[in-house]
Amino acid sequence: MTAFSAKRKISSFAMLAVGIVCIIFSLALDCMGLKFFIDLGNGNLDIRGGILIVGILLTIAGIYLFPTLKYHRAIVYGLFLFPLLATFLVTVIIPLFFGIGYSFTDWDGIRVRNVVGFENYLRMFRQPGFIWSILVTFLFVFFNVILVNLIGFLLALLCTTKIKALGFFRASYFLPNLIGGIVLGYIWKFIFSSVLTNLLATKSMLSETPTALAAIVIVYIWQYGGYIMLIYITGLTGVQADTLEAASIDGASPCQLLTKIKIPMIAPTITICTFLTLTSAFKQFDVNLAMTNGAGSVSDFMGSYITNGTEMLALNIYSTAISQNQYALSQAKAVLFFIILAVVSIIQVRTSNKKEVTL
């Protein structure tokens, strides 16, 4: 190693060490609610943010100057990814661990007074409305995973045939996905409550819990089916025409082409679409909020009268924190929601991967 490389290595490690110390120091001060001032003569200046920025810059410079030619390109790629990774860390990973910690306290959204252990987790399972929201969410997910994938696949088959104006049909089916969930929910609420009631001279589907849940399912399918359709179109267009032509020459019918060739060859696409619809349906919030805000009566559930008959899990967590001002309890529910979603997603992906191997 040359003298220049040795000095560069020392400089790189020094920058990394100082940068990491500055980052940890500034974040620790912020977490503890402390401030770090410098005296400017006519006033004090809090420099926690400046220390954090300096730490980040020194860390990036230390990584970039690291004297390793073999991994230099990977280091440069990492530097370009750093803003995205840092944002993901600050907005997802760190809040996740803070949320888990808050779920064991009496946090009121501002401060923590006491550590209560598992009290919040025991409280939420004693709430019939919360148990009901879990059941409603699973029911909603079950119907949507099946129907969205089925309709999306059928639309994809239609949009990969030799018919005119394919571009128009693809854009038309995908268009609902571009509308925001809140706006979409209020539009369909108007349709169900005013338009259809006048045309059919009947009461609104949103007036009763079972029909209101069915209405939310319909809106979700209408919104998300076109997006899933595009993914299925990508998978179907990847099926080689030579394979289909050879099977047709051998006497395969259109139904056999679909079940024996197309579906097995797009098994990875089916896995992706199932995963997307599963996670999206579990996290349903905006349409649920706009259309019913969780309202709906259930006369007898666990010996109680339920007034949140259409409230799904995400909306229940939101209502617990914002409407009821029970932030620690809401965090406990969110932690359980995260565990449920993670477990179900892992099971779904592993099951789908095994089926891919079988196909």
Identify the overall geometry: globular
What's the structural domain tally? 2
Structural class: mainly alpha
Whole-number average pLDDT? 85
Largest sheet: 2 strands, antiparallel
Encode the helix/strand succession as letters. HEEHHHHHHHHHHHEEHH
Rg calculated over all Cα atoms: 27 Å
Strand content: under 5%
Number of strands: 4
Describe the structure.
The strands form 2 sheets. The chain has a two-stranded antiparallel ribbon with strand order 1-2. Helix content is 72%, strand content 4%. With 359 residues, the chain is mainly alpha-helical. It contains 14 helices and 4 strands. The protein folds into 2 domains: 117 residues, no CATH class; 237 residues, MetI-like fold, CATH 1.10.3720.10.
What's this entry about, in short?
It contains 14 helices and 4 strands. It is mainly alpha-helical.
Topology:
Elements: H1 3-32, E1 37-39, E2 44-46, H2 48-64, H3 72-102, H4 119-125, H5 128-158, H6 166-174, H7 181-200, H8 209-237, H9 241-249, H10 254-265, H11 267-282, H12 286-291, E3 298-301, E4 304-306, H13 313-322, H14 327-358
Keywords:
about 350 residues, mainly alpha, MetI-like fold, 2 domains, two-stranded antiparallel ribbon, 14 helices, 4 strands, about 5% strand
